[in-house]
Write a structure and sequence with these properties.
Helix content: under 10%
Strand content: 35-45%
Number of domains: 1
Number of strands: 8
Order of helices and strands: HEEEEEEEE
Oligomer: single chain
Bound molecules: zinc ion
Distance between the termini: 16 Å
Largest sheet: 5 strands, antiparallel
Length: 142
Amino acid sequence: MDKKERYSATFPYPIPEYGAESYWDACNEQRLMMQRCEQCVRFRWHPSPRCGDCGCERYSWELLSGRGRINTWTVVTHPVHPAAVEKVPYIVVVIELEEQVGLTMVSNLIDCDVNCVDFNQPVEVDFVTHPIGQKIPVFRLA
Ligand SMILES: [Zn+2]
């Protein structure tokens, strides 16, 4: 992992709260998990107290494969935070996960030249560790 893939101690990090604690705990075990509605059985991203499709409040946490395809992306060339100066340019991707059509999440694509990213490329999840100890999901080309 090169220096660009690491986070500096001052880089913003997630605070597990508002029902997302289980998600971040699973990330720390290098598992990608999402809520799945107990009524309509659809996955949902991001964690929320009720299903966006049917409104049901009941859900379970389920393990995902971590595989998907690049739906779209952008290359960030201007550091939007002082701690990102050493990370630019980097790639922000929208990944459509293989478990469900339309199930997307935003993440970073790592170990990929900014000129090599393309639509529909297969990717798989990996995890990088922020200096505070929280593991953060990222994707690599499969
Ligand atoms: Zn539902």
